[in-house]
Design goal:
single chain, 361 residues, paralog of FGE (formylglycine-generating enzyme), 4-stranded mixed sheet, binds calcium ion
């Protein structure tokens, strides 16, 4: 059974603070049998992945086929990349289908309607201090901040916040049908993908699709600065987190397909919402896996290793969000990778699905 580690763990997980610190060695944080092992506490509603859900729902017409191929995975841009993005490694992948855009509220609502699924953020959970009412972490723009390390200045635990109420309170999904679903934990994303007859992408699949055929470039569109020319993606323009120039038109999330797709047809591979991958996060994995020969369909490490917080198992998220800014994390780069607590949804993490060429892939 997964154990939610409470608001503090959530705070640790939502920030880009790990962008700002070194990768000093720390003990591994191991999967305690949590995120993949079945029934979770929900306040009475069982939410085990149901085999009968497999492939029952959704519409795959917005999936794009990615041909098999090889690419250089990892960072080559020395001035923005972090140690965990190095070294670059040749990777070979089988072909796969991937959603052209982030999963939307409308798509997720259809899943919940069909299955009765209850997301992690909607469940009561136990902490050391007792039962905690359902809720999630919400970004709130402060008027001023003291530094960029104390992310409690702009992240707040909001009781009642969930995918149904992205900012908590009475705020609902009216007019947000085509916006990316948020406040989804890793297991929520997996459950949806299962219903669709797919799965979450590996880091390698995600990066291959994000690069769109560009070889060792920084962004999904090539090398041009994100803020040069017409808006390319939804990020934070201005002084994070106190001033947003909104040149891209949005302070928070934007509807999917608002900005041009990359050369393969994928939207929002940079910015809008972070996207869950299937890999465990390890800050040293790229160094440990380095080989002369190409890696074939890499699945990531067997366990999590995060020198910033060794207590909370974390998966990889990719692509950055509407909160990414050059002064803070610049994670709209195709090689950027971030740890996120497996049991955490926030209002800047979403996902998209993949599936192989056959139903069994
Ligand atoms: Ca924006
Ligand atoms: Ca995205």
């Amino acid at each position: 059974m997964a154990l939610r580690l409470g608001p503090w763990a959530l705070v640790c997980a939502v920030a880009c603070a790990s962008c700002l610190v070194g990768d000093a060695p720390q003990p591994d944080c191991h999967d305690a049998g949590g995120p993949d092992t079945g029934v979770q506490q929900t306040g009475g509603v069982p939410v085990a992945l149901d085999a009968e859900w497999w492939g029952m729902g959704g519409d795959d017409t917005d999936m794009i086929w990615v041909d098999p191929g090889e690419f250089w995975m990892g960072a080559t841009d020395d001035d923005q990349a972090l140690p965990r993005e190095f070294p670059v490694q040749r990777v070979r992948l089988d072909g796969f289908f991937m959603d052209a855009h982030e999963v939307t509220n409308a798509q997720f609502a259809a899943f919940v309607k069909a299955t009765g699924y209850v997301t992690v953020a909607e469940r009561v959970f136990a902490s050391a201090q007792g039962e905690v009412a359902p809720g999630s972490m919400v970004f709130r723009q402060p008027k001023e901040i003291f530094n960029l390390r104390d992310h409690g200045q702009w992240w707040q635990w909001v009781t009642g916040a969930s995918w149904r109420h992205p900012i908590g309170g009475e705020g609902g999904l009216d007019s947000l049908a085509q916006y990316p679903v948020v406040h989804v934990a890793h297991e929520d994303a997996k459950a949806y993908a299962h219903w669709r007859g797919g799965r979450l992408p590996t880091e390698a699949e995600w990066e291959f699709a994000a690069r769109g055929g560009y070889d060792r470039q920084v962004y999904p569109w090539g090398s041009e600065d994100p803020v040069a020319g017409d808006p390319k993606c939804n990020i934070w323009e201005g002084r994070f987190p106190v001033q947003n120039e909104m040149k891209d038109g949005f302070v928070a999330t934007a509807p999917v397909k608002t900005y041009p797709p990359n050369r393969l047809g994928f939207y929002d591979m940079a910015g809008n919402v972070w996207e869950w991958c299937s890999d465990w996060y390890s800050s040293v994995h790229f160094r440990e896996r380095q080989r002369l020969e190409a890696l074939l369909n890499p699945l990531g490490p067997d366990t999590c290793h995060d020198p910033v917080d060794a207590m909370t198992p974390k998966r990889v998220i990719r692509g950055g969000s509407f909160l990414c800014n050059p002064s803070y994390c610049a994670s709209y780069r195709v090689s950027a990778r971030m740890p996120a607590a497996f049991d955490t949804g926030t209002n800047h993490i979403g996902f998209r699905c993949v599936r192989g060429a056959s139903a069994s892939d």
